[in-house]
Each structure stands twice: as structure tokens, then as C-alpha cells.
Amino acid sequence: MELKNLAAPVLTICGYSGAGKTTLIEQLIPALIARGLQVAVVKHDAHGFKVDKPGKDSDRFFQAGATVMLRGPGEQFERRGAHAELSLQAALARLSQDHDILLVEGHKGTPFEKIWLESEHDAAVPEGVTGVLQTLPWNGDRLAALLRYVDEWLPRAWRERTLLGGMLMGGHSSRMGEPKQLMLFHGRSMGEIVATALSSAAGEGNVVALGAGPLPAMLENLPRLADAREWSGPVAAIFAAHRWAPGAAWIFCACDHPNVAEKHVRWLLEQRRPGRWAVIPRQEDGYPAPMLALYEPQALAALTRRAMVEENASPRWLLRVPKVDSPDLPAELLTGWHNVNTREEWRKAEFDEPRKTASEENC
């Protein structure tokens, strides 16, 4: 499992036995939760651990060989046997799908970034331990020092995950009469307009064509993904994208946004925050615009889980998730979210909303 495929940043707290790792993590967790973050901790115990009382129903099920899920008010617990053992990376990949930061206690030999805690009698980092970002002394306010570091490190780590642009081409364009991505708007195909806007944020080579249908000649070399067959509509393309790059953030844009430009996708990027799983803006009428929006991998994982129990899952369902933001669009950016579904709308947009030059768009 490559580190870039993890949906959440990982920070390892290391030190010799007695250095205070558990105490510091215990203090750190509520401080991170107060910042709106969902935290997971992975702890390794070489001597094994006890999680249930012998003779209890759940322990009897486990001893008989089953994986056991316990559920109660405000909590749940899953106990797995050695036959289902996961590597550390695989376990972190699972946890990262619905957490914002992963803390690992110990595991000093892993490739993850680390905070080293000095112990009372051992100050130096052992030879061979790599990736140490900061060393915290035995004396002093360790929690304050660690929080200062995390507050600087986490936003950077959140932004450094892979960012991809997904150009949505779904549907038969029955109302338009021809594929929207091929239609010209002020002399450029709408597919080219969308791909150019996405590449300005995601970078050259990080734009993917999602769905079936022909591409404009200049975009024929774009990577392409077919829709996930289990679903229909935009989610079929969105789920295919998430399967292809489960640890990536995506900006999705449908090919019916003829006025989209770099400034619009840049505005979406400016709304990113650790713990914010998606940015689905609202237009002037208050209606959400999920087809030109930013989705972190946690949001896409949540939507995928929802689709398992709801046949007609929609990206708008994410608006019910507290960690999804739905800000009002600034007045000067509204036209970027105007879409066209019929020839009449297309003609009106071309007449009423002339596109600016590239230099004007970037002002």
C-alpha cells in the first residue's frame, strides 16, 4: 500500500518505553477533536491485548472463530482474529476513509512521518529511525509544542494529497442533440474549456475523462475511465474515479459549464480545510451545484457506503454530512456554475455571457 493512497495524513508518535507516548496521545486527541477533526489511533502491543471477558457471548463467538462486531449506544467495536490480520498500511487505508488524521503509537521502523519523544535518560533518536519531523524534550509543555507543530503540518499534509480533475461526460445529450463536450462555445469545444480549467488546478496530466462518448481531437490523449456498471447517472462516473484513485481528492466538472475557468476551480481549492470532506457550493437560487465541486476521498468513501444501501444515491446526499461544506458562491463567480442543457440555453449563454480572454480570467 503506497502512502499516497491513504486518504488521511499519518503521524507516528515514537519513543522508548516510558517516554510518555500514550499520555501525550491521550492529551492530543481531545484537542484535535475540538478542531473539528475525526481522529483514529493505531497502537501495537507485542504482548497481545485483552478486549473482552472470557465467557461473555461476544468472546465465545470470537473463540469459535468468527469476526465479531459489537454495537451499543454511541459506540461499536470490531474484533478480528489472526486469520484476518491486516498489515499496518492496509489497516490505515481502511481507517483513513472516514477519519481526518491517523495517529500511530510506536512503529518507529515504518516509513511514516514521526514525532520522537525523548525519555528521561535517552535523548538521541536511535540510528536507523527515519522521517523524524520534530523531537520533543522530556521536560516542558509537550502538548503545546505538538499542537503548534500539528497546526502547521496538517493543512500542508491535507493539501499534498493527490488532486485530480474529473471531466464528466455522462448521458446521451438528448436535449442538446449532440455530445456537449464537442459543442463549440466562442470557438472552443466545451470539453476543452472544462479540461483547461481543471488542469489549471490539478496540473497537466492529472485530468481524467469520465464516461463514454467522443472527445475533442485535442483531448484524445486524456486518460479515460468507464462508468461503474453498478450505478447510473453522475455517481457511476464518480465511483469509477474513486475506485481508480481511492486516496485522491477530485474536482469534478460536467461538460455543460461553458463559462468555467481557472478562477472558479481555484476558488474551490481555497475552501479546502483539514476535516472538510467536500465543497459543494450553492448558486444564487440556493440550489447546490455538485457537478462543479471538490470532493476529498472521505466524502467519496461516504457516498460509496451510502450507495450500498440506497439504490439512487446522489452527491446531494452529502449535504446531510456535517463535514461537508456548502458555501454561497461569490457574486463575481456565479457564471462559472451556469450550465446549459438545451440548445436554447447554449445560445443564450453564448450571447449573454461572452467569455473573457485568458489574461482577463486570471486577473
Provide structural commentary.
This protein has 363 residues and is of the alpha/beta class. The protein folds into two domains: 3-159, P-loop containing nucleotide triphosphate hydrolases (Rossmann fold); 163-361, Spore Coat Polysaccharide Biosynthesis Protein SpsA, Chain A, CATH 3.90.550. 29% of the residues lie in helices and 18% in strands. It has ten helices and 16 strands. Strands 12-11-8-13-15-14-16 form a seven-stranded mixed sheet, sandwiched between helices. The chain has a five-stranded parallel sheet with strand order 2-5-1-6-7, with helices on both faces. Strand 3 and strand 4 form a beta hairpin. Helix 5 (190-202) packs parallel to helix 7 (262-270). It is elongated. The model is unreliable at 354-363 (pLDDT under 50).
Please give the structural blueprint:
Elements: E1 10-15, H1 21-33, E2 39-43, H2 57-63, E3 68-72, E4 75-79, H3 88-96, E5 101-105, E6 113-117, E7 132-136, H4 142-159, E8 163-168, E9 184-185, E10 188-189, H5 190-202, E11 207-210, E12 224-225, H6 234-244, E13 249-254, H7 262-270, E14 278-279, E15 292-295, H8 297-307, E16 324-325, H9 343-352, H10 358-361
Parallel strand pairs: 1-5, 1-6, 2-5, 6-7, 8-11, 8-13, 11-12, 14-16
Antiparallel strand pairs: 3-4, 9-10, 13-15, 14-15
Helix pairs in contact: 1-4, 5-7
